[in-house]
Each structure stands twice: as structure tokens, then as C-alpha cells.
Amino acid sequence: MVKEKINELKKRANEIRKESLVMVYHAQSGHLGGSLSEADILAALYFYKLRLNPKKPDWEDRDRFVLSKGHACPAYYAALAIKGFFNKKELESYRKINGLLQGHPELKIPGVDYAGGSLGQGIPVANGMALACKLDKKDYKVYVLIGDGEAQEGVVWEASMSAAFYKLDNLIYILDKNQVQQTGTTKEIMDIGNATEKWRAFGFDVIEINGHDIEQIINALDKADNVKGKPTMIIANTIKGKGVSFMELNPKFHGKAPNDKEFKQAMEELNKIKFD
Amino acid sequence: MKMSGIVKEEKGKEATRDGYGKGLVEAGRKNKNVVALDADLSDSTRSEWFKKEFPDRFFSMGIAEQDMIGTAAGLALCGKIPYASSFAIFSQRAFELTRNIVSRNKINVKIVGSHAGLFTGEDGKSAQAIEDISVYRTLPNFIVIQPCDAIEAEKATLALLDYKGPSYMRLLRNPLPIIHDTNYKFEIGKGGILRNGKDAVIFATGTMVHEAIKAAEMLKEDNINVYVVNIHTIKPIDEKLIIDLAKKTNCVITAEDHNIIGGLGSAVAEVLSENYPCLMLRIGMEDRYGESGKPDELYEKYGLSANKVAEKVKKFVKGK
Questions:
Q1: Is the Cβ pair B101, A161 closer than 8 Å?
Q2: Could you give the ipTM of this predicted complex?
Q3: Residue B297 falls in the annotated catalytic set
Q4: Which is nearest to B230 in space by CA: B264, B277, B272, B263?
Q5: Most exposed of A242, B164, B192, B316 (fewest Cβ within 10 Å)?
Q6: What is the CATH number of the domain that holds A154?
Q7: Which one of B14, B65, B152, B211 is the catalytic residue?
């Protein structure tokens, strides 16, 4: 991977973080922590990996992306807007009445393949998409982003069982293992234990990476292309609130908007990030 | 009033789940995008008949109803037409996925719940869904159907193929008399008058259509003539027919093998209270669960048999 491309993706991730911060600040509600943790993954997906056409959001052969942790949609909306699925001005409608960008995704939003909102539910939906792809003998891939808190939902494991059972090698799960959920750390609330071993035991090809290292993310995504006969799980070790010092690993910023002072400081920190 | 083609004599008996099994195979032949999913009950729901003919389009989901509903939605989002079947009771395990994925996004998933009601019999109360109509009826975008014989079930299954949107179809385990002939035209949302009357009207669904027909015969001896109407679509319900017959009789009875709260009785009461308020009698499970036993024994004990229906209707008509 050329250095310029990696640098570009880092800039995209930073842009996604800043847009997310602005959206949640303006709405004075929304989920920032999980948006900041997934920003690098989304940058790699939307500006490197996914086969998409923003002018034809319903293109049948597009890769599908399922944001199962639907609450973390500010970063998702930002990525879609930057990619050109809709005007960046729409980001101002986040969580507003009559707005396009609802508090959790909706199918009517251009570029949205699945309307998440209730945890665990995007995983079986992604499986269904991957099954349909196989039935139709198409070659698109299905990516689904899962939270580590989300992995406490039973249906995640039901779906993991069937993804392996149906040998869905066109399906890539990505775990945004950001270590924090609404009321504390995942270790305190319900430790999911050794995620790598668990998914491996379920029959996945598991790749563990630093989810903030762009190069590691794109390498893992590329590696998943060559997996045959089983689904892939990319365990992305991340930090909830990544990029803003006082939000990092702080459960308070799971679902709370920053005040004026916090916003200013957060923006300053994100603006200070240097690129090669 | 115009009747909807009841035959005078029974043409044998068959379970509505059998009608579904046939309809599903036919739907599969008509449209290659039809797929079926089941949660380890395909022999009981008859979806295995589809599996036999279209093994590649059948998905065994294991005993995992949440996964089944989510997977069905994913298939539908990529252009497939999924029928997802289980027992009525277990389908409800996936309720919140059904609400948040299928209903909220108006996804074309056909949920099919068999072995509903007290009629299921010996398996007892854990298996006898008496709340499923109510549960699915509250979900925006959903339609709710309960056929009363195998022919109607087959036709309803095919009607659902042409219907785009979330649906729930309630099926029954045991054989029921066939009262429709093969030329019968099934139309979603249209009630069918099976027997003309004068003094009262019984709006019935599923098994209770048959009990109501028998009860109507018994009531004739007391010089009480009742309309019997098959309400196969509980949502959207045939408002016009309900209001018309309420006006004609001023004496409205509902009959269902389901809790009297939230099901057909409630649906009819909702229509009438806003359009033509009149006294009503709701026959059904009176906010309690059933038990093990033979269906006819249970119907007698829980007040759903033709005898009991006739008794209740007589008292209601005389008391007015």
C-alpha cells in the first residue's frame, strides 16, 4: 500500500471524527464514543475497500455494509456524505424532526443497506444478504460492523453459528472492540472473554488487528478476500472515544453530547492531529 | 347478501398447514426468488415439501428463531421472497427483531406460525399460542391472516406471493373440514359470508368458522338466524362488511381460538366503536391459558365448541 493512500485514509478518518463531533454537538444528543472508535475502520471500508457507486446507491452488485451497532451512525453518516451519497449539508439534519438523518439509520438514506438500531440484529441480516448473493451467484461481499458490547446479545452467536454452517466466505464480520459500553467497561458489565478464540471455535477465520492502524485494517480486509469456505472475523482492537483525550475509554461519552467547552477542546485536539 | 362460495357438503378434511405446504411449493414454482426458512419444524409446518423440490432455496436455521427472522430480512433486502415458518408460539421469540427489522423497514418477509391456539391440543399451554394475532396486529405495516381451511390456506399463501410487505399467517395443526371449492378466489382484506341470517352475526376466524357454522344450525331450532362470516384477514379487517352486518343485525358476536384481548374480537370492537357502536359478545379464550387434551374436549371445556357457542349466542340474543 502506497504511503499516500494510507495518509489519505488517515485524513478521511479524521474528517469522519470531526463531522461526528459536530453532528452530536449540534443535535446535543447522539452517540459519539462508538463513532470515534470505528472511524478508521469506516475510512478503510468507504475509501479503500467497498465496491460502491454513490450515483447508483441501489446498484445490485455493490458490496453491502451493515452497521449493526446502529447507534454509532454519526461516523457512518459522515462517511456516506463524504463519499458522495448525499450532500454534506444533510449532516445538519441528524436527530432533527423531519430530518433525513434519524437517530438510528433508515433504509431511505442513500447508501444505507440496513437500518440498525437494536443491537445484535444486523448480524443475521448480513448473513441473509450473503446467502442471497450466493444464491444469485454474484460476487459482492457483505461487511458487518459489530460492537463488543453488542456481542452480549444472544442472536450474535446464533448468527455466527449459521454463518459458519453455510460457509459464507463472502461475509466479513468486523468487531469494533472498543472495550466500553453504556454503563461501564465490557469487562465489568459482561465480559465476552477471548473473542478471537470464541469466533475461531465457531468456525471463522479470525484476524486480530489494531483497529486504529489503517495499514493493518486494509491488510486484514484484503486478506479476507482470499478466505475460502468460511466467514471471516476481523477483531479490531479499538479505543472508545479515540482521538479525544477526555472521551477515550470514558463511558460517559457513549451517548452524551459534549457541552460548549468540551466541544471546543475536542475539536482542537482533532485539528492538531498531524499527517505524514 | 352475497355468499362467498361455501359448499353444502364437506369435501373431506385437511389441515391449513397442508394447504400452506402445497401453496408454498406452487409459489416456488411460480417465482424462483421464493425461499423458505424454518427453525427445525419443517416437517410440522410442511415447509419440507418445498425443501424436497427446492433444496437450494430452503434454509434450515436450527432452533434459532431470531436468527431466522433476521436472515429472512437480509434475503429479502437482496431481492428474495422469504417465507419463514415455525410454530406460532416460537415465532414470537423473535418479536423485537420482527418489530425493528421487518415491520419498521416494511421488509417483504412472510412469517408463518403453525400449531396456533387451543386446537393444538395435547402439547398443552406452552405450545398453544393464544396471543399471536394480537402481537402481530399491533405492528405497523403488518397484515395478519388466518385461513379456515386447506384450500383457503393454499390460496392465501399464493396471494402473499403477490403481496409486498410484512405479513403473518396463522396456521393450525389438525385437519379441518374443507368448505371452499377450488374455484374460490381469496382476496386479502375481504371477509366472506358463509351463511346468511337476520338476528345476529358471528364474525369468526380459523377453527371457529366451523364451530360457528355448526352453532348456526343449532340456533335455527330456536328460531334464531345468524350470519356466519369468515374473517380470514384480521388486519386490514373488512370494515365495510362488519359495519353493514352490524347495522342489519344490531347483534354482533366474534369467535376465535385466541385471547379475547387483542385478537379478532378487539379488531371488530375497534371498528364498531368508532362507526356503529353496538353491544358485542366476544367468544374466545377468556384471558387464560389452555391445557393438554383433545381439541374437542378442550373446546367444550373452554367454551369454544359449537354447543357452547350456540348457548352463548342464544343467551346474548335473548338478553338484548
A1: no
A2: 0.96
A3: no
A4: B264
A5: B164
A6: 3.40.50.970
A7: B65
